[in-house]
Amino acid sequence: MKLWIACIALLAVSTPKALACGFYPFNEDVRFHLLEPNAFGYRDFAPFCFTTQRFAEVPELAPKADTLVDGNILQWGEYCRGKVLTADIATAVYELPFYEFDDHAHSTNPMVCYLQAKHDTAALYYLRFAKQVEGYNSFTADPWERTENATLPMQQKKIEEAIAQAMKSRHSELQTRYAFLAIRMAYYNSDTATAKAIWRRFFEKRRLHWTIDYWAMHFRALSEGDSALRNYYAAQVFYHAPDKRKQIFQYYTKIPVKEYLHYAKNNKECAAVWLYEGVHNPGRALPEIKAMCRYAPHDPALGFLLLREMSKLEDWIYTPTYTYFSPTLREDRWEENKVPRNFRNVPRDRAYAAELRHIVTTHAVCNRENSALWQLSSAYLAAIAHEYSTALHILANVHGRDRNMDLAEQVKMFQTIWTIAEAPGGKAIIPNWAHRLIMDLSKTGNNRFLFAVARELEMHGNTTDAALVFSRVNNQDVAQELVGDGGTGEVYWKSRRHIRRLSMDFFSDYYLYIDMQYTPDQLAAMLRAIPHTLQTDSFECWKYATVMRDRDRLQDMLGTKYIRRNDLPAALSAFYKVDAQLYTNPNYGFKVCLAANPFYTNFYNEHTPTTADTVVYTKAGITRKMIEYLSLAESPATKNRSYYYYLAATAYLNMTQYGNSWMMRRYYWSANGDPTGFEDDAEYFGAQLAKQYYLRAKATAKSPMAAALCLRMAGRCEKYALLSDDEHSGYYNDDTDHRLFASNKYWKQLMREYPEYAEEMLSNCLSFERYYAGMK
Q1: According to the model, what pLDDT value does residue 764 have?
Q2: Which of 49, 397, 424, 690 is 20 to 30 A from 481 in CA distance terms?
Q3: 462: how many CB neighbours lie within 10 A of its CB?
Q4: Do the domain assignments include residue 27?
Q5: Alpha carbon distance 597, 133 (integer Å)
Q6: Chunked in runs of 10, what are the mean pLDDT values of the chain (776 residues)?
Q7: CB atoms near residue 451 (< 10 Å)
Q8: Do 12 and 157 belong together in one domain?
């Protein structure tokens, strides 16, 4: 049959969701993690949660718009002695035009009204001035006349005015604010020398405590050419000014931490340096965590570094252990033994987890900030070491889970996974108390949790329940809009036997995964478990919903697996249980790809239609006929045993990569004969059974013409077996045909034993019908 028609079958029966051309999952697509930052707070650190991106997108951690405030607004709130709402202050500072800050302006803004009522002309003048110089907060203030890195006279005038106002101001906070405006304008005016001078004059010799101090330090850091000193300033800004963290994060220079640590003057400044170093470390950050334990044991930043480290460990250990992808921020290469290089790092990563656990448990003597995170981390680290009883005991006593729904969900998730993992081999089950949680998280699209449950069941021998849960992973019934609102997107995974499908080595659909990974016995056990009618129990309904819908396809898969083992009676028994309508269903490719005569081919035909394609078989029909023909061929009472061997051999040939009934062994086809890792690859790409039965047909042939035909067809099978990997993939060169002919022992035998037929058979494709007629 035509190649383009065969491709229809690939689309019809492979995955329910077509993947984009050339798509391959990477980074966040494959990073496995279950710890969700929103369960632990740390909203000020939201962009720096561990991900494969430069900045994490954690919308659950972002403050709501009506509660969003920054340090500058809070500082103005204190200036107004708490008499003005922060929303009104934000409107005044960030939205009002400059003229509304005149002494006699008729403004309705509560902050302006408050300052006017207090006759605070100094603050009103400052706010007016700050509005007027907003246009200088960019390097592109004068795009028509300005040359790069040149200063602007008007901007220089405003810098001098800001400095003058700072010097004469009697209010220390307003003095600092003018100085901040001056240092910011100097930076954007490419005048770093002035920026440094302003810093020395107004900031360097006094204790910094206002938000505006660290906003000024932000521009002091950006004006510094020395990497160590710039890192020191940037670290202090990152520590003290949450609203500047995302900007200052980008100015980090990778140098030994001791080179800028020596600028720190006290424990808090040391903690800032180690925090800055920690959030930039994509590898093991144990030194940073230890230092934070020493310098700031009660600081929320320490808990955040721990959360980052736990997320790294999830990626390093569970991405390869569960999905068989390499960790996302490590090199992803496959060695000759088909084992990811970084998969071999897992034992070392588990040992590192033990080191981290020692820190977590010894840190228990302190009055810890966010004790729930430390408890959950201790439990998780115990689970990583396969100490599930200890992990579950710690989980049962996590603080605050009754008040934090997100935390309670995290605890229940891990309790479910670790309870399954704790069971001895072959006895793992889904605990009854977890049924509601699993169904609820399935509705919200938490695919990683479902996948972890399925994988633990599978690894502990319960392949039936594992397959049932796998069938609910990436369930298309779950609305896509849920992703990002509790959902986790699709999960992608590989086979532990590194089986491939076409050019892909990953899965996002349970059906093809079970086809690739599960034995016939495992699949048969799952099929036996499927009830014939819907259950009244809601969890049972959830668990079996997908496989009940796919029962016929799964039964067809079982027969296909037996065909791969050449167990024809078992295959026939399985195919008999398939509703025949499956093979005519237009949603699948069976109707098209089985619409050919599997018992006919010629010297060259592979996938083009022939005049013999007048009979349409189901898989059961093909298998039944094969059994019938082999029985006749092997019976001494049959008059023309050679003919029936020949028919069986042709069917075996047509069930290979090169025949019209390849769908008896595979659910997809490609012109490139890449090995898949299935147990019948040698047969599928080498036509060994077909060759075997063509030779039996030759041995029982009653005429030289029939015997010659059998050798010619055995030689065709031998040709496929002789193809190199590149040639299987279609890469022929000028010497390919010559080499295949010279190496083909059956074609040599044909020329030696039947020279009168050999030349015609090997060179004239139209001669086939005459010889085939002599077989009957």
Answers
A1: 82
A2: 49
A3: 22
A4: no
A5: 83
A6: 38 42 83 93 91 79 57 94 94 93 88 95 96 82 47 86 95 96 95 96 93 97 97 98 94 97 96 98 96 93 96 95 87 47 83 95 69 94 96 93 91 97 90 97 95 96 96 74 59 82 82 93 96 85 94 97 98 96 87 88 86 85 97 95 97 95 89 78 94 97 95 94 73 73 92 94 87 87
A7: 24
A8: no
Domain final residue pick, 191, 223, 255: 223
761 found inside a domain: yes
Name the CA radius of gyration of the chain, rounded: 36
660, 606 in Cβ contact below 8 A? yes
pLDDT at 6: 40
Query: Which residue, chain included where needed, has tokens 């795009």?
Result: 143
Alpha helices in 101-244, H assignment, sequence order = 110-117, 121-132, 153-168, 172-188, 192-202, 211-222, 227-240
Three-state SS for 398-460 is CCCCCCCHHHHHHHHHHHHHHHHHHCCCCCCCCCHHHHHHHHHHHHCCCHHHHHHHHHHHHHC
Q: What gap in Å lies between CA 194 and CA 186, rounded to an integer?
A: 6
Q: Which two tokens stand for residue 672?
A: 């490139």
580 CB contacts (<8 Å, ≥6 apart)?
Answer: 618, 620
Q: How many structural domains is the chain composed of?
A: 2
Q: What is the pLDDT of residue 606?
A: 85
Please list, in sequence order, all residues whose beta carbon lies within 8 angstroms of the beta carbon of residue 443, skipping any fewer than 6 positions away: 478, 482
User: What are the b/e assignments for 509-525, b being 16+ CB within 10 Å?
Assistant: bbbbbbbbbbebebbbe
The dihedral through the CA atoms of 218, 220, 224, 230 has a sign that is: negative
How far is residue 651's CA from residue 719's CA, in Å, rounded to a whole number?
17
* Alpha-carbon gap, residue 699 to 689, rounded angstroms: 15
Q: What is the DSSP letter of 315?
A: I
CA-CA-CA-CA dihedral for 376, 377, 381, 384, to nearest 10: 70
Is residue 627 assigned to a domain?
A: yes
Q: Which residues contact 359 (CB under 8 A, 6 or more apart)?
A: 286, 289, 290, 293
| Cβ-contact 369, 300 below 8 angstroms | yes
Q: What is the DSSP string of 231-275?
A: HHHHHHHHHH-GGGHHHHHTT-----THHHHTT--SHHHHHHHHH
Residue 26: inside a domain: no
Q: Is the dihedral of CA 269, 275, 277, 280 positive or negative?
A: negative
| Residue 521 in tokens | 């016995």
Residue at which a domain ends, from 223, 255, 286: 223
Same-domain check for residues 724 and 578: yes
